[in-house]
Amino acid sequence: MASVDMRVYDEIEALEAILIEDLAVKHDDGVPIIETVVHPSTGDQIDLQYVCVTLVVKLTPDYPESSPEVFLKNSRGLDDSLLSDIDLKIKEKLDRHVGNPIVFELIEIVREYLTKWNLPSGQCVICLHGFVKGDVFIKTPCYHHFHSNCLAKHLINSEKYYMEEYEKLPNWQRAQSLPYQQTCPVCRCAISFDVKTLEEAPPPIESINAPPFRLTAELKALQARMSAMLARQVERGGVVGSGDDGPPLLTISTAADNEEPRSSTSGAQRETNSDRVVPSTSTDNTPDQPYRGPYRGFNRRAKPGRRGRGAAR
Ligand SMILES: [Zn+2]
Ligand SMILES: [Zn+2]
Fold first, then answer.
1. Which of 126, 198, 253, 277 could be bridged to 148 by S-S, CB 3.0 to 4.6 A?
2. Which tens digits make up the pLDDT trace of 258-295?
3. 56 and 101 inside one domain
4. Does residue 123 lie in a domain region?
């Protein structure tokens, strides 16, 4: 620990003074790891920050005489090509400035990029259209972006779905279930928006200007590929509820029931299936075998017969 250069402590002290609570310094074997979340410069208007990234600088034991290791993580609103541009710029900077404290300048490089690209890149995951000038969109506290109108639709539907599921519950479970909570459609962080206000925003511009749907040759080829893939999955028993219905949804069988279906193919398959499930102590396959419970032909998630049918081929 004593071998860490005094300049390192000076640098960290200066960073702490500037960044205050935005800086976290950990130590790995006495060597500092500096972590800070970098935002674009938008003055006091935090609402206008659409992107951010965490910069991690792992100092080396002889820093600043050798370059630190630098990573970017937890990026929000930035696409991969932009991140690799930033990476490249950081590497250039490191190469040119070996021997000097560099962390603050790295932060500035990242901040400069973020300020220039302070627009959500990529698509709104709800409508899959991009963000263009004039779109009304919103940033969640977890730094995910959606067209306001899209988010309104999503929240209305997710509440409706919650209520539908709630109605199906028996009373004792209703009493225990948590009240509806809006969540981010990307990361499920709890969010809280006024749906009425969001709903007043216009729909995404690209959705209005999008050309009418046309079945192109490319789409037809894709369709053909997909249906071949589906046929293959159906054939291998990988598709539930298509064609062959598999075992009935709930099979309650008694010793007497076991007599008949054993002769048919599906009966034999089910037998194989349940042999694997039943503990090895009851290997006896005679017709007067004891009642085995209602779950024959089910895998553990109660989906009918997938495992059994797949294994039989
Ligand atoms: Zn959208
Ligand atoms: Zn989120």
1. 198
2. 555 444 444 444 444 444 444 444 444 445 555 555 55
3. yes
4. no
